[in-house]
Amino acid sequence: MKNLYIFFLITILSCSSNSTNNTTQATANETDLYFPPLNSSSWDTKEISNLNWNENNVQSLLDFLNEKNTKSFIVLHRGKIVIEHYFNGHAENTNWYWASAGKTLTTTLTGIAQDDGLININNKVSNYLGTGWTSAPLAKEDLISCKNLLTMTSGLDDSLGESVSPENLQYIEDAGQRWAYHNVYVKLQDVVAQASNQTWTNYFNTKLKDKIGMSGAWIMLDDLNVYFSNTRSMARFGLLISNNGKWEDTQIVSESFINDAINTSQNINESYGYLWWLNGKNSFHLPQSQFEFNGELIPNAPNDMYAALGKNDQKIYIIPSRDLVIIRMGEAADDSNFALSTFDNELWEKINLIIN
Fold first, then answer.
1. Phi and psi torsions of 110, nearest 5°
2. Cross-strand bridge partners of residue 251
3. Roughly what angle, to the nearest 10 degrees, separates helices 342-355 and 58-67?
4. In Å, what is the CA distance from 15 to each residue of 9, 40, 216, 305?
């Protein structure tokens, strides 16, 4: 990803962002889940003192985030902003890439398309894209369902680079028999576009983005469709998912689909749902490895946390037991990475000093 190209795209998107200025103090009942209004700059806040958190440790967290190349950081409690901070020249209306954290946007649109009766995730991908979308033998290609793409169990070779052209999608094992972190998931965007008879962007905008007041846009980078937005838009999406796919009184994506998405989706990698990473399991697999690691994905994080994790430490953490949604955007905290990194555990050590 070329830094100059990214900066150019971010600048363009920032000019058209509809996101937000600072906020007003909360007046609603604290037991209610708050949703920021659509097409508005307002977002209610909540004082740390009202949560009995340790406010003395907040500055240490912010210093750590600044040192670790962070651009933005938001903590929501029951939808209201408790912490919001921008670093290193980033601002509230500045856009940044979600990287693979945006996989969960594809998950959600896939669920919406299924709710709309356009697709069934148990159907084979070739039902929607036709045969020959891979280089696998037809009998093996026909084994690959949309659900296999959601769960990273396509059986296609993950060592051939980022391209998802047919010649780069080669058979290595039967679908469902191998977990491997692979860009082939993006074919779900083609499935949804074909089934809806719309462009992916149009279906996304009308079915998700506009309904929850997100800003941003999909941009093609290095053969992948990558989402760029400001940080509050990422927080809006996290809030939607934390409420089981419901925004205020409107069910955007079915609760049953979200429940499936945020629980173990196959029997190989316990810590993976439908493109969501899951904490609190007994073992996990990592990108570019077939090794099973024992223990939790992020030991310092709550057991019930699930997360959207993107390249170079783009993060959406959702913690149902604590009513929290936490967002981090920025450059890689340390070394470049695909999704999970040592930064996750270090960051949670700092967060715990505040919330516990």
1. -65, -45
2. 246
3. 160
4. 10, 16, 11, 34
Length of the chain: 356
- Model pTM above 0.85: yes
How far apart are alpha carbons 1 and 4 in whole angstroms?
A: 9
* Closest among 41, 20, 44, 15 to 32, alpha carbons compared: 44
Amino acid 30: pLDDT: 54
pLDDT surpassing 60 at residue 29: no
Q: Which residues is 113 bridged to in the sheet?
A: none
Q: pLDDT tens digit string along 297-326? A: 999 999 999 999 999 999 999 999 999 999
Q: Are 140 and 174 in contact (CB under 8 A)?
A: yes
> Residue 36's CB: how many other CB atoms inside 10 A?
22
Distance from C-alpha of 89 to C-alpha of 75, rounded to nearest angstrom: 20
Question: What is the H or E stretch that residue 83 is in?
Answer: strand 80-86
Token pair of 184 as six digits: 């082939």
Pair type for strands 324-330 and 70-77? antiparallel
Crossing angle between the packed helical segments 187-196 and 103-115, to the nearest 10 degrees: 30
Helix or strand run (H / E) with residue 90: none
DSSP letter string over 8-76?
HHHHHHHHH--------B--S-TTSPP-PPTT-S---B--GGGGT--GGGHHHHHHHHHHTTEEEEEEE
Longest dimension (CA), the chain: 61
Res 144 pLDDT > 60: yes
**330 in the Ramachandran plot: left (φ > 0), alpha (ψ -120 to 50) or beta?**
left
How buried is residue 326: exposed, middle or buried, by Cβ count under 10 Å (0-12/13-18/19+)?
buried
Task: Give CA–CA dist 341/101, Å, rounded.
Answer: 13
